[in-house]
């Protein structure tokens, strides 16, 4: 039976006993869940990349954001085999410390890169729904590229300290790759992690919630779509407005699902676990080992949920975007109505 010493919280207080956690569950939960995310996420993201690169002729701003989001997920997915092997071997890291640093860095870069790009997609859709005319001069593919570069720069800069905090340590015959940091650096890591959580999760989450609240109110207006860039003129315009409304509703549901199921539980349980560890370090009488273990279990259970956002993000493209799919559908309908056009489209494709 495998146990984990919570030495990061007790090493600075010689009068407090070590907490020992039974972590057998994670040696099954994490490898299995990461393997599922790897298989499903790789298939979905590879398909999304193929459609965007080879089947999308005109890249809209939303396509640019989705491409960067998919690249972010794909980079993380390729790190999962390392973690699968590590946890299946019960916390025995067979690779070097630089590889440990890189794996932990890519996890957090994916996590916060996904959050920021989802925020960009939400803001883009918000402008199109609530400010359709003025957004014509605000939104462009060029600006979307600049925003994407800024997001990547922000993510790399804010997550660079992970390369310092992530460490390995030899314990008996095993080598541990910390998912946080070593005991002597935990206090500094707690401050860093708290600041990053506020700036790169709490604030974007608030922005997304405000945008979606305003979008829902706008979509529920009886006359929505009648003045939306002239799309309400005629039966065709009404149908187009209705499709745009359905597309927006799907996007709202999927993004909120990503935040509520993947990001929010992870950040809540992680913050709770880190806080309990710090409080026990300051005064062991405040937090019992059983309470600390419960927080640790909750945190480890939500880690696969955070990874699962790599599977949810491509669904956003296929269900809420569907630019390539719509184009292929239109071509299919046109070719069925016009034999000459069918021959031209077949040749073109």
Automatic annotation (TrEMBL):
The keyword Chloroplast does not apply. GO terms for molecular function: A1 adenosine receptor binding; G protein-coupled UTP receptor activity. The chain crosses the membrane at residues 32-54, 66-87, 107-126, 146-166, 189-214, 249-268. It is found in: Cell membrane. Residues 44-317 form the G-protein coupled receptors family 1 profile domain. It holds the Pfam family 7tm_1. This is P2Y purinoceptor 2. It comes from Poecilia reticulata.
């Amino acid at each position: 039976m495998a146990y984990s010493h919570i030495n990061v919280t007790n090493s600075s207080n010689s009068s407090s006993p070590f907490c020992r956690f039974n972590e057998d569950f994670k040696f099954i939960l994490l490898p299995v869940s990461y393997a599922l995310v790897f298989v499903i996420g790789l298939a979905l993201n590879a398909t999304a990349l193929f459609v965007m690169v080879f089947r999308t002729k005109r890249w809209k701003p939303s396509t640019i954001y989705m491409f960067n989001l998919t690249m972010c997920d794909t980079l993380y997915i390729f790190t999962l085999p390392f973690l699968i092997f590590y946890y299946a071997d019960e916390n025995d890291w067979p690779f070097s410390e630089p590889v440990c640093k890189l794996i932990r860095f890519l996890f957090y870069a994916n996590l916060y890169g996904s959050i920021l790009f989802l925020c960009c997609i939400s803001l883009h859709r918000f402008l199109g729904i609530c400010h359709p005319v003025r957004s014509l001069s605000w939104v462009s593919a060029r600006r979307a590229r600049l925003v994407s570069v800024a997001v990547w720069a922000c993510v790399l800069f804010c997550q660079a300290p992970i390369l310092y905090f992530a460490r390995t340590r030899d314990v008996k015959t095993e080598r541990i790759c910390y998912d946080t940091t070593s005991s002597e650096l935990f206090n500094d890591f707690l401050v860093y992690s708290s600041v990053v959580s506020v700036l790169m999760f709490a604030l974007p989450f608030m922005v997304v919630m405000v945008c979606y609240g305003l979008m829902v109110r706008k979509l529920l207006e009886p006359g929505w779509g009648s003045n939306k860039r002239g799309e309400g003129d005629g039966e065709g315009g009404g149908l187009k407005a209705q499709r745009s409304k359905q597309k927006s509703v799907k996007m709202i549901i999927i993004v909120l699902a990503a935040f509520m199921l993947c990001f929010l539980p992870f950040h809540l349980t992680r913050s709770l676990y880190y806080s309990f560890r710090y409080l026990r370090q300051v005064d062991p009488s405040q937090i019992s080992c059983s309470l600390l273990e419960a927080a640790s279990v909750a945190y480890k259970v939500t880690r696969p949920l955070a990874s699962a956002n790599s599977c949810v993000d491509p669904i956003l493209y296929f269900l809420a975007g569907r630019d390539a799919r719509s184009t292929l559908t239109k071509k299919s309908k046109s070719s069925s109505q016009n034999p000459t056009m069918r021959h031209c489209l077949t040749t073109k494709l």
